[in-house]
Amino acid sequence: MSASIPTKPVVTRFAPSPTGYLHIGGARTALFNWLYARHFGGTFLLRIEDTDRARSTQGAIDAILDGMKWLGLDWDGDAVFQFARAARHAEVANTLLATGHAYRCYATTEELEEMRAAQRAAKQPLRYDGRWRDRTDAPDLPYVVRLRAPQTGEVTIKDRVQGPVTVQNAELDDFVLLRSDGTPTYMLSVVVDDNDMGITHVIRGDDHLNNAFRQLVLIRAMGWDEPVYAHVPLIHGADGAKLSKRHGALGVEVYRDELGILPEALSNYLLRLGWGSGDNEMISRQEAIALFDIDGVGRSPSRFDLKKLENINGHYLREADDPRLTAIAAPLIATKLGRDLDTDQQAILTTAMASLKVRAKSTLALADGALFLFESRPLGLDAGASALLSPEGLVLLGNVRVVLADSSEWTAAALEDAVKRFAEDAGLGLGKVAQPLRAALTGRTTSPGIFDVLVLLGREESLGRLDDCLTDSASGAS
């Protein structure tokens, strides 16, 4: 049961600016908004805040939409593009002008810079001094439209995360609503869009907390319903510093494509960054919907830990369906091989997944671990594998090759039984025999269980790889 049940249908929104990728902090904000709406059976909306025309790009919009879909954060209805609503934003500014809640300011850029220079010299806060607030003259000059903010009293926001926060109105300035070219500012657009979209809960990073006080002045001037605010602490790096690219502040597509993270792993990890419900670290999407509430979000910044994310990813890899993992790993393997896997090879990969995914922590590692199955002969050997194929190792390999070739049944159980008998007769541990065998079959020192490898490769391919090593050795010795 949630600690605080909304009194009307919940409508949340995620409102990214398309000036870059969907970064990790934005993804968490989207997730929290999505979960809150889904928990209460409400509506989750997406708004693209593309008013910065110089920096907004279609590529960034596509990356945001793709990242949202990959994370399974479906939005209700069509995405709203803020720039397309500029006329509505200007309409509200003109309404505020007509009602006396806004005024025209004719101060020039040079005058405003002189004002700020004087404030810096006097060590005063940099804010507009209201010089056109009460003037009635209207020179034939360019002007901006400013909100007439209250100058006395205070405003308190009962933030669902930060608690009650109060600011003196004297600290707020008359911010610009419309620029001199008639275009609306971010502050105006956000408030108008939130109202028109019926947003009931504004859940966002606490770097917007100061904006909330200024936006609330505008909301009250229009007589609109005030949303519930929940300002979530930002994510920090493991060292406690503001999250940056060196900590992992990357686009979600980088986690998918370059780090090999599954969407459910990233979602689970982001959920636990700042929100808690008991000690359970692994929370399914359905469990998250059932449990999530803003009251579970803490006030302290969370610390991003890539190793922890990788461990969670390993858990979800082990839980994932094998055909799904094949669909993810096959293109990665094909890229490394320079050729696509055929239908039979993809079937082998699916069969191998049960063994491969046990030790992998990323889809990249999964693909890398499966690569040996499809490499062409003669197989390349890494340094560790080459070291295992010493003269002593090659003698063992030749003897084991005879045992394997004589095996009438090519199953993991039958092959293991035959090799174990050989090792016992030779007075050796099974590992001593398996090491050169693994090196010859995979070109590496680590792989799925060696008898699983033999079955996956098949009799012909397995014996052929052993022969390659033995032949190379014989040629070198001669």
TrEMBL record:
<dbReference type="InterPro" id="IPR001412">
    <property type="entry name" value="aa-tRNA-synth_I_CS"/>
</dbReference>
<comment type="similarity">
    <text>Belongs to the class-I aminoacyl-tRNA synthetase family. Glutamate--tRNA ligase type 1 subfamily.</text>
</comment>
<keyword id="KW-0067">ATP-binding</keyword>
<dbReference type="Pfam" id="PF19269">
    <property type="entry name" value="Anticodon_2"/>
</dbReference>
<dbReference type="InterPro" id="IPR045462">
    <property type="entry name" value="aa-tRNA-synth_I_cd-bd"/>
</dbReference>
<keyword id="KW-0030">Aminoacyl-tRNA synthetase</keyword>
<dbReference type="InterPro" id="IPR020751">
    <property type="entry name" value="aa-tRNA-synth_I_codon-bd_sub2"/>
</dbReference>
<protein>
    <recommendedName>
        <fullName>Glutamate--tRNA ligase</fullName>
        <ecNumber>6.1.1.17</ecNumber>
    </recommendedName>
</protein>
<feature type="short sequence motif" description="'HIGH' region">
    <location>
        <begin position="16"/>
        <end position="26"/>
    </location>
</feature>
<dbReference type="InterPro" id="IPR014729">
    <property type="entry name" value="Rossmann-like_a/b/a_fold"/>
</dbReference>
<keyword id="KW-0547">Nucleotide-binding</keyword>
<dbReference type="InterPro" id="IPR008925">
    <property type="entry name" value="aa_tRNA-synth_I_cd-bd_sf"/>
</dbReference>
<dbReference type="InterPro" id="IPR033910">
    <property type="entry name" value="GluRS_core"/>
</dbReference>
<keyword id="KW-0963">Cytoplasm</keyword>
<feature type="domain" description="Aminoacyl-tRNA synthetase class I anticodon-binding">
    <location>
        <begin position="337"/>
        <end position="469"/>
    </location>
</feature>
<dbReference type="GO" id="GO:0004818">
    <property type="term" value="F:glutamate-tRNA ligase activity"/>
</dbReference>
<dbReference type="InterPro" id="IPR000924">
    <property type="entry name" value="Glu/Gln-tRNA-synth"/>
</dbReference>
<keyword id="KW-0648">Protein biosynthesis</keyword>
<dbReference type="InterPro" id="IPR004527">
    <property type="entry name" value="Glu-tRNA-ligase_bac/mito"/>
</dbReference>
<keyword id="KW-0436">Ligase</keyword>
<dbReference type="InterPro" id="IPR049940">
    <property type="entry name" value="GluQ/Sye"/>
</dbReference>
<feature type="binding site">
    <location>
        <position position="245"/>
    </location>
    <ligand>
        <name>ATP</name>
    </ligand>
</feature>
<dbReference type="GO" id="GO:0008270">
    <property type="term" value="F:zinc ion binding"/>
</dbReference>
<comment type="function">
    <text>Catalyzes the attachment of glutamate to tRNA(Glu) in a two-step reaction: glutamate is first activated by ATP to form Glu-AMP and then transferred to the acceptor end of tRNA(Glu).</text>
</comment>
<feature type="domain" description="Glutamyl/glutaminyl-tRNA synthetase class Ib catalytic">
    <location>
        <begin position="10"/>
        <end position="310"/>
    </location>
</feature>
<feature type="short sequence motif" description="'KMSKS' region">
    <location>
        <begin position="242"/>
        <end position="246"/>
    </location>
</feature>
<dbReference type="InterPro" id="IPR020058">
    <property type="entry name" value="Glu/Gln-tRNA-synth_Ib_cat-dom"/>
</dbReference>
<dbReference type="GO" id="GO:0005829">
    <property type="term" value="C:cytosol"/>
</dbReference>
<dbReference type="GO" id="GO:0000049">
    <property type="term" value="F:tRNA binding"/>
</dbReference>
<dbReference type="GO" id="GO:0006424">
    <property type="term" value="P:glutamyl-tRNA aminoacylation"/>
</dbReference>
<comment type="subunit">
    <text>Monomer.</text>
</comment>
<dbReference type="GO" id="GO:0005524">
    <property type="term" value="F:ATP binding"/>
</dbReference>
<dbReference type="Pfam" id="PF00749">
    <property type="entry name" value="tRNA-synt_1c"/>
</dbReference>
